[in-house]
Design a protein that fits this description.
The protein is α+β, with helices and mostly antiparallel strands. The protein has one domain: Roll (Thiol Ester Dehydrase, Chain A), CATH 3.10.129.10. The chain has 3 helices and 7 strands; from the N terminus they run E-H-H-E-E-E-E-E-E-H. Strands 1-4-5-6-3 form a 5-stranded antiparallel beta sheet, covered by helices on one side. A two-stranded antiparallel sheet has the order 2-7. Strand 5 and strand 6 form a beta hairpin. It is globular. The two termini are 14 Å apart. The C terminus is likely disordered. InterPro entries: 4-hydroxybenzoyl-CoA_TE (IPR050563), HotDog_dom_sf (IPR029069).
Length: 151
């Protein structure tokens, strides 16, 4: 069954390379998580206008993943250019829930739901989302769930 992909508030294209693939020539599933993490870093820097490296470095604010759910609906192959995307599902006091997806054209490949928590890198305890992060998140909030329920 082919799943129709949805568009996300922040999207970037990604070439699938040999290093992403297993011996069957398709993306080895943990590689999607690496690509999604790269996307989140790009989103902070390019989308939110907040340098991700400075958030973790000088500001000592971490964003560890505390919950992650993935559904894989079709394989991606070496040489394909896929679109990775994310939208904000929920903004909490110290947490942020993201919808992430990977698609090739209109075909959904992977969809994920990830919860990040803002933490102090000094104490490794939850802290409120920084004000500048909270202020920048609004334009990436998904208005309503997709009617297709896919990526």
């Amino acid at each position: 069954m082919t799943h129709t992909a949805i568009r996300h508030a922040f999207e970037r294209e990604r070439l699938i390379r040999f290093a992403h693939c297993d011996p069957a020539g398709i993306v080895f599933f943990p590689q999607y998580l690496v690509m999604f993490n790269d996307l989140v870093e790009d989103w902070f820097t390019e989308g939110l206008g907040i340098e991700y490296a400075s958030l973790l470095g000088p500001r000592r604010t971490g964003l560890p993943t505390v919950s992650l759910n993935c559904e894989f609906s079709a394989p991606s192959r070496m040489g394909e250019t896929v679109t990775l995307g994310l939208s904000v599902e929920r903004i909490g006091g110290a947490s942020l829930t993201l919808q992430l997806g990977c698609r090739h054209g209109d075909e959904a490949r992977v969809r994920a739901r990830q919860v990040l928590v803002s933490t102090s890198l000094e104490t490794h305890r939850a802290i409120p989302l920084p004000d500048d992060v909270r202020a920048a998140l609004g334009r990436f909030v998904r208005d309503a769930p997709s009617s297709t329920g896919d990526t």
